[in-house]
Amino acid sequence: MRKIVILAGLLMGAALFTGTPAQAWVGCECYKLNAAPVCVAGVVECTGMGGVCLLPCDYQAPKKMHKARHHKKSKK
Q1: What is the largest CA-CA distance in the chain?
Q2: What total number of domains does the chain contain?
Q3: Residue 13, pLDDT score
Q4: Is the residue at 53 inside a domain?
Q5: CB 3 within 8 A of CB 31
Q6: pLDDT tens digits, the chain, 76 residues: what are they?
Q7: Residue 40 belongs to what domain range?
């Protein structure tokens, strides 16, 4: 019986540590009245918007947009 328990523990440990690491950050779904739910980084951001955090979600930070620099055209 003891061998079965040890073997089961080793198999569970191998199953937990051989997987790839998760790439998603855990956030929460922010619910507000008369608005669609939004995935935010945490509870503080949700309460700051006046919402309630109910469910966990996979939060991905928005990518920064490249701002184009506009140069004056020289007169010839």
Answers
A1: 92
A2: 1
A3: 60
A4: yes
A5: no
A6: 888 877 677 666 655 555 555 555 678 899 999 989 989 988 888 889 899 988 888 888 777 777 777 677 777 6
A7: 22-61
- Token readout for 18 is 């051989």
Q: Which residues pair with 29 in a beta bridge?
A: 39, 55
For the chain, the residue count is 76
| Confidence at residue 66, expressed as pLDDT on a 0 to 100 scale | 72
Write down the H helix ranges in 1-76: 2-17, 43-48
How far lies 50's CA from each of 10, 33, 43, 62, 74, in Å?
Answer: 47, 9, 11, 21, 49
Question: Does 3 fall in a domain?
Answer: no
Rounded to whole angstroms, the Cα distance separating 43 from 41 reads 7
| Predicted local distance difference test score (pLDDT) of residue 73 | 75
Q: Is residue 68 part of a domain?
A: no
